[in-house]
Write a structure and sequence with these properties.
Layout (H helix, E strand, L loop, with lengths): L6 E5 L3 H13 L3 E5 L2 H10 L4 E7 L8 H11 L5 E5 L6 H4 L4 E5 L4 H14 L5
Parallel strand pairs: 1-2, 1-3, 3-4, 4-5
């Protein structure tokens, strides 16, 4: 499957941040699929557990699931999926609520930081099966 796109699922309810992250990932050589709710993210993850090579999620989301819960659900479906959390106010909760081997980015962040975080986690995780 050489040349296959590396697809990253992005969960963010703020349109400007969603676009910034998607654009940064595209410029970094990744393909972003975006959604604005945790529920939609979990539905997508369930539909194809091996499609997404990483999950990037905001903590405070629209709907009933927050980003911490999305990260945990993602790991239940694929225990190797890298998770990157984005937050403007919940960084102090990362150690208690984040999944192991995840990265937390505080907003605001530079676009290059999101690409570097994805690359770092992909380089330390198992290849897709």
């Amino acid at each position: 499957m050489q040349g296959a796109a590396v697809v990253i699922l992005v969960v963010e309810d703020d349109q400007l941040v969603r676009e910034l992250v998607a654009d940064a990932l595209s410029e970094g050589g990744f393909e972003a699929e975006v959604t604005n709710t945790g529920e939609e993210a979990v539905t997508r993850l369930k539909s194809d557990t091996n499609k997404y090579r990483a999950l990037i999620t905001d903590i405070n989301l629209l709907g009933t699931l927050n980003g911490w819960e999305v990260g945990h659900r993602a790991r239940e479906l694929n225990h190797d999926i890298p998770v990157i959390y984005m937050t403007g106010a919940a960084a102090d909760q990362w150690s208690a609520n984040g999944v192991p081997n995840s990265i937390l980015l505080n907003k605001p962040f530079a676009p290059a930081q999101i690409v570097a975080a994805v690359a770092q986690l992909l380089n330390t995780s198992a290849p897709p099966t």
